[in-house]
């Protein structure tokens, strides 16, 4: 009643201010639960995938990169085995291989090129070839 | 330090962009209720207000990976998006005549003062709906949301003087719209 009486005495702009103040002070409607659930679901659907965790050996620098390039422990084991095998074959060649090498060397000496065998007669039709005449003159 | 205790909106948005689901929840609970209240006050329609909040938040999530630090506050940005979306809807909507606002039911058990207050609130809502879009937005932001003129100027991307002019004209128009119902609303005997 008192409120109503006071309102009657207000000029319209004051009454409007009071009306706006009351509307502003009114408890706002809370966000509906189903809307919140929908918003959250949409947020998670739009969310980029989590960043990959940093590698434990990231700080090791070039050594770590080399280690990864070699394929880690399995790669290094294979590389070591191949290295030892190469050394062994070089230092102590097996017998059949040594014999084969000697035979190859002998054969190579036998089939040595004889420059005389490479001379050939002038092909038919090229007897008067000026280029051949020039070469023979030399 | 303070970032860990109460992370800023921008920090939460960065965490969200890095795939942090907890940041999504925190940011949602911080921004969505305010957006909903703003949309509800601008549109006076819960279903439309929900649409506005959903669209505005979706745009925020989508821009998160490309968010430029220092460009704007996420709250200001998403508030502006919601405001623009609500304004678009207002433009499409047919204006509601003030006289068409439902009167309170005569047999309502509420006390006289509560009925009168509810009636005034409805009348104010209908009068706000009659205002031109920019006047309504300025009045709602200033007098219902309690934002300062510079804040409103930033949101509406206009000068502070323009905000003052819009709110003043809006209030004058509201008073004119409500004047014929002064007696109904208990301002005259």
Write a concise synopsis of the structure shown.
Chain A is mostly helical and 138 residues long. Chain A has 7 helices and no strands.
Defining key terms:
heterodimer, A: 138 residues, mainly alpha, 0% strand, disordered N terminus, B: 189 residues, Rna Polymerase Sigma Factor, Chain: A, Arc Repressor Mutant, subunit A, 2 domains, 9 helices
Average pLDDT metric of chain A: 70
Q: Largest beta sheet of chain B, briefly?
A: none
**What is the strand content of chain A?**
under 5%
Tally of alpha and pi helices of chain A: 7
Q: Secondary-structure element sequence of chain B?
A: HHHHHHHHH
| Integer count of domains of chain B | 2
Shape of chain B: elongated
What sequence of helices (H) and strands (E) makes up the elements of chain A?
HHHHHHH
User: Which chains share the greatest interface?
Assistant: A-B, 36 and 46 residues
Distance between the termini of chain B: 61 Å
Strand content of chain B: under 5%
CA(first)-CA(last) distance of chain A: 138 Å
Stretches of chain B where pLDDT is under 50 for at least 5 consecutive residues are none
Rg from alpha-carbon coordinates of chain A: 49 Å
- Sheet with most strands of chain A: none
Percent in helix of chain A: 55-70%
CATH architecture term of the largest domain in chain B: Orthogonal Bundle
Are there runs of chain A of 5+ residues with pLDDT below 50, and where?
1-10
Describe the structure.
The complex is a heterodimer of chains A (138) and B (189). In chain A, 64% of the residues lie in helices and 0% in strands. Chain A is built from 7 helices and no strands. Chain A has helices at residues 2-9, 12-25, 33-46, 62-69, 72-91, 95-110, 130-137. Residues 1-10 of chain A have low confidence and may be disordered. Chain B has 189 residues and is mainly alpha-helical. Helix content of chain B is 69%, strand content 0%. Chain B has 9 helices and no strands. In chain B, helix 2 (9-17) crosses helix 3 (21-43), helix 4 crosses helix 5 (74-92) and helix 8 crosses helix 9. Chain B is elongated, with a radius of gyration of 19 Å. The model of chain B has no long low-confidence stretch (mean pLDDT 84). Classes of the chains: A mainly alpha (138), B mainly alpha (189). Chains A and B meet through helix 1, helix 2 and helix 3 of A and helix 3, helix 4, helix 6, helix 7 and helix 9 of B.
